[in-house]
Design goal:
The protein is mostly helical and 155 residues long. The protein has helices at 2-10, 20-51, 61-68, 72-82, 88-105, 114-121, 126-137, 141-148, 151-154. Helix 2 (20-51) crosses helix 4 (72-82), helix 3 packs across helix 4 (72-82) and helix 5 crosses helix 6 (114-121). The longest helix has 32 residues, at 20-51. The protein starts with a helix and ends with a helix.
């Protein structure tokens, strides 16, 4: 009996992974999962763009996953698969910085402090805003504003 089991185990025809149909099934499952992750990633991006939850400092992977009715692990998996090496925190920071830049360029906000712009953009503190801004643009928010607005708009 032991010999027949070991013979069967050694025979590739009995290996569930080695058969062509198993490989095709696995490949089909992988394609389906990848497609589901792609759809989920599109949903994440749509939610960030339209609902703008990143404006709240408490926006994180856990709260976003809860909002979408999925697990944080699945959210991370979708972003890792389709987010070009970006994680959720980096994605949220990018959206926050985009909003901050819009506010800094807007002449109506020429007298709004950098701290207020940071808070409106969803940063928890002025320091985290400055650090993220400098890392992304190699200048401070004030320097960015001055480079975008004419002297008349700054007066």
């Amino acid at each position: 009996l032991n010999n027949s089991i070991s013979t069967a185990m050694a025979n590739p025809a009995f290996s569930p992974v080695s058969s062509d149909s198993s490989r095709q099934l696995l490949t089909r499952r992988q394609r389906m999962r990848r497609e589901r992750l792609k759809e989920l990633y599109a949903t994440i991006r749509h939610t960030l763009a339209k609902e703008r939850p990143y404006r709240h400092p408490d926006c994180n992977a856990r709260t976003m996953a809860q909002h979408l009715g999925i697990s944080p692990r699945l959210l991370a998996e979708a972003i890792n698969e389709w987010g070009k090496g970006e994680n959720f925190a980096a994605m949220v920071t990018r959206y926050r910085l985009r909003l901050a830049c819009q506010l800094l360029r807007d002449p109506r906000h020429a007298y709004t402090t950098s701290e207020e712009i940071a808070l409106r953009s969803g940063f928890a503190s002025r320091q985290s805003f400055y650090n993220s801004f400098r890392r992304a643009f190699s200048m401070t928010p004030c320097e960015y504003r001055e480079s975008q607005l004419s002297p008349a708009q700054l007066e």
